[in-house]
Amino acid sequence: MPKVKPHRTSPSLDMTPMVDLAFLLVTFFMLTTQFRPDEAVVVDPPSSTSDLRAPESDILTLTIDSKKRVFFGYDKAPILQEALKAVGAKYGVTFTPAQSKQFSLLPNFGVPITQLGSYLDKDTEQRKALNPTLAGIPYDSLNNQMMDWVIEARKANAKLFQKPTFLVIKGDGDADVKTVQTVIKDLQEKDINRFNLLTSLEMKPSYIEK
Amino acid sequence: MSTKIDMTPMVDLAFLLLTFFMLTTTFAKPNVMQLTMPVKDKNLKDDEQTKIKASQAMTVILAPDNKVFYFFGLNEPNDKSVSVPEIKVTDFSANGIRKVLLERQRQQPEPIILIEPYSVDGKDAKYKNMVDILDEMNITNQKKYALIDIPKKDVELIKKQNLL
Lengths: 210, 164
Hints:
The complex is a heterodimer of chains A (210) and B (164). By secondary structure, chain A is an alpha/beta fold. Chain A has helices at 16-32, 77-91, 97-104, 113-121, 124-130, 145-160, 177-189; strands at 47-48, 52-53, 59-64, 70-74, 166-171, 194-201. The relative contact order of chain A is 0.18. Chain B is 30% helix and 23% strand. In chain B, strand 2 and strand 3 form a beta hairpin. Chain B starts with 7 loop residues before the first helix and ends with a helix. Chains A and B meet through helix 1, strand 1, strand 2, helix 7 and strand 6 of A and helix 1, strand 1, helix 2 and helix 3 of B. Strand 6 of chain A pairs antiparallel with strand 1 of chain B, so a sheet runs across the interface.
């Protein structure tokens, strides 16, 4: 008696739902993704157990790197343009509309105001090459441009958006405390007593002896 | 003739893109640690400021190389009636400064902790140490602490005890 041959079907299966799902996810991630902005300096913030989150916007960032340099950043273009005008007027430097536009697109910068014009005239690639050699914003007591930026940005934000500014100090773990303390002291001089230290998240110790 | 097309390359592509976007997306916003400094009253003279009781005081000095120095009581080199405090050395590990702080809290329910980052002669504490110690304050739930510049008398005390 001959064996009964099982009916062989082709093993191909309908992949359409899987493709649908995959492309749905791709679309989702493409639309929600936010690319990391090209910052002038990359710092490695220390970790803490604080689980407070930074707000969505109105964040003023003072970045302090391990070479004692201070960088200024703000997340709204109109504020930056307003601040540029005000700080420029104080130091007697004027900027062209093109420079102002370019400035408002920078995520952060660390150049003294006198060199800012030529820095803004450069294209992205040249600026990137220049960034490691930058001097940072002057913050000593005689020439405190950093505080001018902070004050003007806060003023501009209060004027244009009627919102308080969220001040964040983003320090590199290897930065020395002295620089950070100088910055904090400068802020305190101007009655800014509440600010935030940006940190990466660390787990809380699960057990504490009491 | 079958009208089926091989969809495998398309699936490959879709998942490749999916992986790329999943890995590059940053959902998590960075965390922040709130720091509120006391309001500086410029009219207040030095001798009008509140004095800390020696029984409450504890000084934590952030030293270079991730070390922590601490002593209890006050360091008053000019006052002969106050005994010279002895500086002890520890670190940031779980059995280091955290244990000391918790122990202190048990003995003295209301300690006042002075945090002094060391920065003399190019030897500096790291910013990471500052965040770590503020973090320890949160973990051990300290009520009163202050971040101050290291006074000269404390630097001299460290030198006298040959710690650096």
